[in-house]
Design brief:
Blueprint (H helix, E strand, L loop, with lengths): L1 H12 L5 E7 L5 E6 L5 H10 L5 H10 L4 E8 L10 H16 L14
Antiparallel strand pairs: 1-2, 1-3
Amino acid sequence: MDRKKELKQLYKETKIEAGVYQIKNTQNQKIFIGSTRNLKTLNGVKFTLEMGGHLNKTLQNEWKHFGEDAFIFEVLEILKKNEAGYFNEKKELEKLEEKWLDQLQPYGERGYNREKSR
């Protein structure tokens, strides 16, 4: 029982980090770029794919077709928080994700993301 309490406390003390991640299909090299305000939730993204409920239907279909072992999850960048003054985490995370989308271009044959109309 003490071990359970210890693990619970450790979880609470673990710093919550926002960042940008990539899901890569190792069979066809297609990628999905996403962001989250809590990188701990990546297990939840994987669970959603396993249960068949991911919002990106193309990614979901290929997950089902190729299987879980064909995909790898990678954190591309952790958002550096500005401790001094006002910091809009949501807006800064959107900018960081946009940077990675521009850099990797995960659209069409290259990936699962949809280009946003500007």
